[in-house]
Design goal:
Blueprint (H helix, E strand, L loop, with lengths): L2 H21 L5 E9 L5 E11 L2 E9 L5 E11 L4 E9 L5 E9 L3
Antiparallel strand pairs: 1-2, 2-3, 3-4, 4-5, 5-6
Length: 110
């Protein structure tokens, strides 16, 4: 292989690697869907997507039950290395649009 071919090959490998790095965000997402059927042939389906972030995660989940009623849950967690604290925030939204926020912090003392 001559020098121009080697440079071309190196440029293609570098471009491909950069493309993977820039589009790799979705590759770190974990998706899950589960369905349970209970009495009266009623079903409940849960769909969740969790994505890693630097130092934490984002998670969105939708649960659909009988009568097509849905509940959404959006949460995020973040580690703060300076304070050794894990912070988690979750917002629950019910079928009628009512919502509640839950915040939780845990500090490591050792």
């Amino acid at each position: 292989m001559n020098a121009p071919q080697a440079c071309t090959r190196l440029a293609l490998v570098a471009a491909f690697t950069l493309a993977l790095a820039l589009t790799g965000t979705d590759a770190q997402a974990f998706k899950r869907k589960s369905t349970v059927t209970g009495p009266g042939n009623n079903t409940v389906t849960n769909e969740a997507t969790t994505t890693r972030t630097p130092g934490g995660y984002n998670r969105n989940a939708t649960t659909t039950g009988p009568g097509n009623n849905t509940m959404n849950r959006a949460s995020q967690g973040q580690w703060n290395p300076a304070t050794k604290t894990w912070n988690k925030t979750t917002t629950y939204t019910g079928p009628q649009g009512n919502s509640a926020d839950v915040n939780h912090s845990t500090t490591i003392s050792k």
